[in-house]
Amino acid sequence: MEFTITEQDHIRGNPDAEVTLVEFSDLQCPFCRSFHPTVQQALEEYGDTIRWVYKHFPLDNIHPEARPAAEAAECVWKQKGDEGFWAFADKVFEEQDRIGSTLYREVAESLGMDIAKYDTCVSQRTYEDKVEQDYQQGLRAGVTGTPGSYVNGIPVKGAVPYATLKAAIDQALQ
């Protein structure tokens, strides 16, 4: 499976890395939350040889806050770029038991955002289409649950342990 990575995607790590991990994720998903530090560990271990690309895959039927969280994350990105997006995602996963608009706004404020612009972005659902495009791309790729990841196009399904992710990365590096 090949993915086109654009300026609208959120990349953590070396943008020109040899290995690309594309993760379709849901900010309300407990499995995504447990997988998040696993991918962070891979970035630490592999350094410039890997990039992590985050795409939204809100499971609306079981996670009613997934789509609002994704849209809020995009509103943060609009002002603070990828660094802000990732800081938002990290904090929302960390505080997932408090998920909701109050948490999103607190995180936005802590990142020094122009809150009036953030509030307008969220209330107008400015990034509704972007979130849906990510979701549709995930469906086309065969994602059925979250996290749904691909290491250089090879599927890695679920919140796998680090050893499993490491094996997929090592195989991609061969």
From TrEMBL:
Pfam families: Thioredoxin_4. The keyword Disulfide bond applies. Keywords: Disulfide bond, Oxidoreductase, Redox-active center, Signal. Signal peptide: none annotated. GO terms for molecular function: oxidoreductase activity. The keyword Transport does not apply. InterPro entries: Thioredoxin-like_fold, Thioredoxin-like_sf, Thioredoxin_domain. Residues 1-174 form the Thioredoxin domain. Gene3D superfamilies: Glutaredoxin (3.40.30.10). SUPFAM superfamilies: Thioredoxin-like. Belongs to the thioredoxin family. DsbA subfamily. This is Thioredoxin domain-containing protein. It comes from Candidatus Wildermuthbacteria bacterium RIFCSPLOWO2_01_FULL_48_16.
